[in-house]
Amino acid sequence: MxxxxxxxxxxxxxxxxxxxxxxxxxxxxxGGERLALVGIRTGGDHLATLLQARIQEIEGTxxxxxxxxxTMYRDDLASRGNLPIGKTNIPFHLDGKQxxxxxxxxxxxxxxxxxxxxxxxxxxxxxxQLAVLIDRGHRELPIRADYVGRNVPTAREEDIAxxxxxxxxxxxxxxxxx
Length: 178
Description:
The protein has four helices and eight strands. By secondary structure, it is of the alpha/beta class. The protein has a five-stranded parallel beta sheet with strand order 3-2-4-5-6. A three-stranded antiparallel beta sheet has the order 1-8-7.
C-alpha cells in the first residue's frame, strides 16, 4: 500500500507561522535583550535561523544563535545503532539567558528532554522555552511547547515531514499517512 502525503503548510504559511512565533516570543519576554535561540539539529537549527532574522526585523535586536546536537543524549541510542554525531555550536554563555529552544516537530517530547539535558551541560539559563513549527501530540513526557506554529493532531502511525530546499529554508510541511 502506497503512502499518501498531504501538504498542510506551504512556504507562505510557514513564513506566517515564524512571524507569529517571533512576535509571541518578543511579547512574552518583553523584548529580545536577554534572549538566546538554540535550534535542535537537524531542522530546528534552520528554523532558529529564520526566527533570529525575523526577531531582528521586528525588534532591531540581534539575538544570539546556537545549535545543539542531541545524539549522545538520546535515551534510545542503544536501539538505534550507529547514529552520526553532529556538531553542537553554542558560541555564547547560557547563564542567565532566556533560551528559546527551537525544533521543527514536537511529538513524544523525548527529543526536547535530550536537548534540555545537553543545554544544562553548557550553563544555567534563567528559563528554557520551547518553540516548534508543528505540534502533533502524543506526548510520552510532560513537555509542552510555549510557541506553536500549528497544531496537527495525528495518528501514531502517521508522520510529519518538514521539507527544506537546498538553502535549508522550509518550503512545505506534509502529513504522511501509511
